[in-house]
Design a protein that fits this description.
The chain has 294 residues and is α/β, with parallel strands linked by helices. Helices cover 39% and strands 16% of the residues. The strands form two sheets. It has a five-stranded parallel β-sheet, sandwiched between helices. A four-stranded parallel β-sheet has the order 7-6-8-9, with helices on both faces. The chain is globular.
């Protein structure tokens, strides 16, 4: 029987098409605004990717923070909160005290974020039954990329390819994974590592690609995979392969490469008898008690 997570992963190309066709005119950050993007867990990593993309596109200074670590006293024109559930405590607390224009992207229109943010973009078609985020994370990034003026036609085609191609046996058998990214894809490398930890309890790490030589390559070796999301620095493949490790760089759009990682996470979970829909020790949203009881 297909799990919720498998079905949600498979639906991503269609979700991206729908998001690209429904970019809101004025709810998202506008060119020239100084923006803080916040989230928790997966949403924090998507925030990091978007922050790099927005600055690269020339739309303005953009910082990304875990919602619990956003600095106070720093001036922004807008806070953009990414929250699938619309109920995460740290995000809601930040919106209450933001002191500037706020926008939220969420999957659930029946949650507190709807009244706490000034503007809300609802991607309910990308909501998920699984605890593990897959399609909502990538769909909100597809929306944000389209808002920056990107054409996602090739990325969508790459995602379809990532879904259609069989997974190599070494991906389900590997002992360890290190995910690498450059620029905006570093946020996706962090998300790839998290997805593998959540779904199948894998030993994963993630680094900016140029930092990998500065220590982390010491764990490369037989049965271990170094997986590049995006273009790899010259010579890195050869250095990893010299250790006996496997170096992967699929050449797909990094967001589509993340889809392939999601598939591996589910395959490994099922092979171990784990339920990828309900990872150990996790819930859909972290809802903390009131501050006086924490």
């Amino acid at each position: 029987m297909t799990t919720h997570t498998e079905a949600e992963i498979a639906s991503q190309p269609d979700c991206w098409r729908r998001a690209v066709g429904a970019v809101p005119a004025d709810a998202l950050p506008q060119p020239g605004e100084r923006v803080a993007v916040v989230g928790c867990g997966t949403s924090w990593f998507i925030a990091q990717a978007y922050a790099v993309l927005r600055e690269r596109a020339g739309h303005g200074e953009t910082d990304a923070f875990a919602a619990s670590e956003a600095p106070s006293g720093r001036s922004y024109d807008r806070v953009l909160a990414l929250t699938r559930s619309g109920t995460t405590t740290e995000v809601l607390e930040l919106l209450r005290s933001a002191g500037t224009r706020t926008t939220a992207i969420t999957a659930d229109p029946d949650t507190p974020v709807m009244t706490l943010a000034d503007r809300v973009v609802v991607l309910d078609f990308a909501d998920e039954a699984s605890v593990v985020q897959t399609r909502f994370a990538t769909t909100q990034l597809a929306l944000l990329r389209a808002h920056l003026g990107e054409d996602l036609t090739a990325a969508i085609a790459d995602a379809e390819r990532a879904l259609a191609e069989p997974l190599a046996p070494e991906l389900t058998a590997a002992e360890q994974f290190t995910f690498l990214g450059r620029g905006w894809s570093y946020g996706l490398a962090l998300e790839a590592g998290l997805k593998m930890r959540e779904a199948c309890r894998a030993w994963t790490e993630a680094y900016p690609a140029m930092e990998y030589r500065h220590g982390p390559i010491s764990i490369a070796g037989p049965g271990r995979i170094t997986w590049m999301l995006g273009d790899a620095p010259g010579g890195l493949r050869e250095e990893v392969e010299a250790t006996g490790g496997t170096f992967l760089a699929g050449g797909l759009d990094p967001m589509a490469e993340l889809v392939r990682v999601q598939r591996v996470a589910v395959a490994r979970a099922l092979a171990q008898g784990l339920d990828p829909d309900r990872p150990l020790h996790l819930t859909r949203s972290v809802i903390l008690p009131a501050p006086e009881t924490r």
